[in-house]
Amino acid sequence: MAKSAARYVCQACGALASKWSGRCEACGEWNTIVEEAPREAAPRGIGTGRGQKIDFQPITGTGAPVARRSTGNVEFDRVSGGGLVPGSALLIGGDPGIGKSTLLLQIANAVAATLGGGRPATVAYITGEESVEQVQMRARRLDLAASGVELAAATSVRDILTSIDRPQVPDLVVIDSIQTMYVDTLDSAPGTVAQVRGAAAELIRLAKRRGFTVVLVGHVTKEGQIAGPRVLEHMVDTVLYFEGERGHQFRILRAVKNRFGPANEIGVFEMTDAGLMGVENPSFLFLGERREDSSGTAVFAGIEGTRPVLVEIQALVAPSSLGTPRRAVVGWDSARLAMLLAVLEARCGLVLAGKDVYLNVAGGLRIAEPGADLAVAAALVSAAADRPVPANTVFFGEVGLGGEVRAVSQPELRLREATKLGFVGAYMPPQAKGRRALPGGLAIHEIRHLADLVGRLAGDGQDNRPGSSRRTG
After folding, report:
1. Is 299 helix (H, G, I), strand (E, B) or coil?
2. Fold agreement between 74-280 and 284-458
3. Dihedral sign of CA atoms 360, 363, 365, 368 in order
């Protein structure tokens, strides 16, 4: 019998290669290709008539709706869609040291302190990276003492399944982390594509069958994506990312996938001596240190998931001594900044070609919404002209390549949040006829073209579009 050929698998994307190489041709990652043991035999076709018939149910259903379990943490419940769904699987990723284990230990303690079905809830917290004593030290530091939390240090998936598949199954199982778990029927090392996929599949299968919630902690790559096969994110019901800088007190928990709630919802936490505390009004904290008389700053009224969030955009435009001016961005898309700078030069006559441009989103928040274009443009124009934007005003609107300002979703929600925080004006795109009336109390400045904004903020009041002499109101 011919000897089976070795398999070389990329641990970043799961692509197969015929031989080892330093760089994966599929995803471009370096030093991620690992040799794995070949299959003993090729998989055979299943065919028909050999299995057991399954029962199909009508889509309307007759059973009672599944009740969510509140974790007692308002921000985590918001991101998860209202609480934990029995039989679901959640995947949480984030940079090392950002607070994943701390948050999950707090969630486990809060869940164990609640009642489920007339009895105290039980939580199994299984760590593969720390000892039980180390987790207990963190629990004492955070003053967590719920008796329903059971701690264990294990990495064998077989041992874990045997321990939790019992008559009184836990309500919540936390696996920290999935990259340290291994299935003994696979020959590859823990953390490889096959092991991560196999361990997650076994844990999720038991969670669906027994009706408990399983939370998997995942490592991330240097690009911020969860390490391992991409199929892992498809296997789970909810994918959450922990964002934020370790030197900053704020942490953002963002849902990028949620089968039971809105995607792109965020929860805001503040790192304190007592652990991660939920922030009820993130806009107030993001704007807490804002200076109204400083040029190069503008307040963006954005929407993150279902909640409005006001955040400060900071820009700095300085003369460059380099042949190629520098463009540095923190918290926003660098490609979108390049596009916006080109629109300002080509459509509005604002010369920034020989200037260094720095852009920062204050508070550690990452913005992906196109509606931030107008606020970024306002900060850039203010920095270039060295003139502060009008006090207590917010900006939102998408900018097209022609310089036109396009409408964005939910302007009413954005303006209500601005009014609640004491703002008196808003620069926004014109609203289409027939839309809901905007809330009162704010002076609305409709911006149809980006040149209108440049004329207002630069102080000349002129329409700066090439060939146009129309004055803005």
Report:
1. strand
2. no
3. negative
CA–CA separation, 343 and 373 (whole Å): 11
**Intervals of the chain under pLDDT 70:** 1-5, 37-50, 61-64, 115-118, 228-229, 245-247, 433-437, 459-473
Angle at 309 between CA 403 and CA 364, to 5 degrees: 90
- Alpha carbon separation from 386 to 431, 457, 459 (Å, rounded): 30, 10, 11
Q: What is the pTM of this model?
A: 0.79
Alpha carbon distance 444, 448 (integer Å)? 13
Cα distance between residue 61 and residue 71, in whole Å: 27
> Which secondary-structure segment (H or E) carries 269?
strand 266-272
> What tokens were used for 308?
């409005």
What are the tokens at 154? 């294990």
Mean pLDDT, all residues of the chain: 86
What pLDDT, in 10s, does the model give residues 52-68? 788 888 877 666 677 88
Q: What is the CATH number of domain 74-280?
A: 3.40.50.300
Strand 405-406 to strand 398-399: parallel, antiparallel, or no bridges (unpaired)?
Answer: antiparallel
Torsion of CA 329, 331, 336, 339, to 10 degrees: -30
DSSP result, 304-369:
ETTEEEEEEEEEEEEE--SSS--EEEESS-HHHHHHHHHHHHHHH----TTEEEEEEEGGG-----
Report the SS3 class of residue 375: helix
- Domain spans in the chain, listed from the N-terminal domain onward: 1-38, 74-280, 284-458
Say if CB 175 and CB 164 are below 8 A apart. no
Helix 373-385, helix 450-458: angle, nearest 10? 30
Query: What is the CATH architecture of 284-458?
Result: 2-Layer Sandwich (3.30)
Torsion of CA 332, 335, 341, 347, to 10 degrees: -120
pLDDT one-digit tens code per residue, 362-414: 888 889 899 999 999 999 999 999 999 998 999 999 999 999 999 999 999 99
